C-alpha cells in the first residue's frame, strides 16, 4: 500500500499492464508508469521517484472488526458479483515465470511472506509459518517476531521495548508472553496484562508482504530464506 501524494502532487492511478508479472500502474496527472511491488516510477516524467509506503495488514473481516469496530469494509460493486474471480490463484500457479529461480531451493511460485528491515531482506515460506506460527528472528540488527494468526493473517513486530529485545513465546491461541516480565501481548503487538501493560507498551509493526518467491526475489535479489 502506497501514499499517492508525492512531490506535492496527488496522483490518480489505473491499471496499465503487467511488468515482470507484477501489477503496473499509470497515473493520470503525469502519464508516468509505477511498479506496484516497489512503489517506484519506472518510466515517464517522474521516473526514479518512489511512493511512500503505508503500513498495512492482511486480516480476516472478523479480526478487523474486532480491532476496528468503526472501520469500513470495501465490497464489490453491487450487481457485478459474477464478474469477480474468487479463486484465481490456481490458474495463475500454472503459468511460467519470467524470473529464473532454478539456483534456489524454492519453486518460483512458492508463497512467501517477505520482510525487509535493518538493511536485510528475508522470505518466510507459508508452509513454515503454518508449522511454526511464532518465529523469533533478527534481520540486520533488528530483532523481530513474526506471528501467524492462521492462513494469510500475519504480523511482524520489532520486539525491542526500551532498547531491549523481548524473548516471546505463545501463551495461548491469542497471546504471547515475554520471559522478562511475564507480560501478555496481543496480536496488535500491545501488552494487555502485566508490568508492560501498566506501562502501555506496544511493539513497533514491521511491514510484511505476501508474494510469490520469484517476484520477491526479483525485487529483493539479496534476500535469503528463513531456515535455509
**Shape verdict:** globular
Largest sheet: 4 strands, antiparallel
C-alpha end-to-end distance: 29 Å
User: SS-based structural class?
Assistant: mainly beta
Question: How many strand units?
Answer: 22
Chain-wise SSE layout:
Layout (H helix, E strand, L loop, with lengths): L1 E2 L1 E2 L2 E2 L2 E7 L2 E6 L5 E3 L5 E3 L8 E2 L7 H7 L21 H5 L17 E7 L2 E6 H6 L2 E6 L2 E7 L5 E5 L1 E2 L2 E2 L2 E5 L2 E4 L5 E2 L5 E3 L1 H4 L5 E3 L2 E4 H7 L4 E2 L3
Parallel strand pairs: 10-22
Antiparallel strand pairs: 1-8, 2-3, 4-5, 5-6, 6-7, 9-10, 9-21, 11-12, 12-13, 13-20, 14-15, 16-17, 17-18, 18-19
Give a quick summary of the entry.
The strands form 7 sheets. This protein has a 4-stranded antiparallel β-sheet, with no helix packed on it. Strands 21-9-10-22 form a 4-stranded mixed β-sheet. A 4-stranded antiparallel β-sheet has the order 11-12-13-20, with no helix packed on it. By secondary structure, it is mainly β. The longest helix is centred in the first third of the chain and has 7 residues.
Could you please describe the fold and organization of this structure?
With 228 residues, this protein is mostly beta strands. Helix content is 13%, strand content 37%. The strands form 7 sheets. The protein has a 4-stranded antiparallel sheet with strand order 4-5-6-7, with no helix packed on it. Strands 21-9-10-22 form a 4-stranded mixed sheet. A 4-stranded antiparallel sheet has the order 11-12-13-20, with no helix packed on it. Strand 4 and strand 5 (22-27) form a beta hairpin.
Amino acid at each position: 500500500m502506497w501514499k499517492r501524494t508525492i512531490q506535492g502532487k496527488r496522483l490518480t492511478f489505473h491499471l496499465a499492464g503487467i511488468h515482470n508479472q507484477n501489477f503496473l500502474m499509470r497515473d493520470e496527472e503525469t502519464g508516468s508508469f509505477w511498479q506496484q511491488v516497489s512503489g517506484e516510477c519506472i518510466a515517464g516524467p517522474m521516473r526514479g521517484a518512489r511512493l511512500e509506503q503505508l503500513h498495512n495488514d492482511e486480516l480476516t473481516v472478523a479480526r478487523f472488526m474486532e480491532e476496528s469496530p468503526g472501520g469500513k469494509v470495501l465490497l464489490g460493486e453491487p450487481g457485478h458479483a459474477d464478474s469477480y474471480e474468487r479463486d484465481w490463484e490456481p490458474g495463475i500457479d500454472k503459468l511460467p515465470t519470467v524470473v529464473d529461480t532454478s539456483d534456489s531451493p524454492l519453486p518460483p511460485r512458492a508463497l512467501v511472506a517477505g520482510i525487509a528491515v535493518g538493511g536485510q531482506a528475508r522470505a518466510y515460506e507459508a508452509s513454515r509459518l503454518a508449522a511454526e506460527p511464532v518465529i523469533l528472528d533478527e534481520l540486520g540488527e533488528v530483532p523481530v517476531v513474526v506471528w501467524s494468526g492462521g492462513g494469510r493473517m500475519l504480523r511482524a513486530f520489532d520486539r525491542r521495548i526500551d532498547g531491549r529485545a523481548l524473548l516471546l513465546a505463545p501463551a495461548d491461541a491469542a497471546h504471547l508472553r515475554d520471559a522478562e516480565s511475564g507480560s501478555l501481548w496481543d496480536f496488535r503487538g500491545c501488552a494487555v496484562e502485566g508490568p508492560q501493560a501498566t506501562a502501555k507498551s506496544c511493539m513497533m509493526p514491521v511491514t510484511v508482504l505476501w508474494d510469490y518467491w520469484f517476484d520477491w526475489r526479483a525485487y529483493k535479489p539479496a534476500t535469503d530464506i528463513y531456515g535455509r
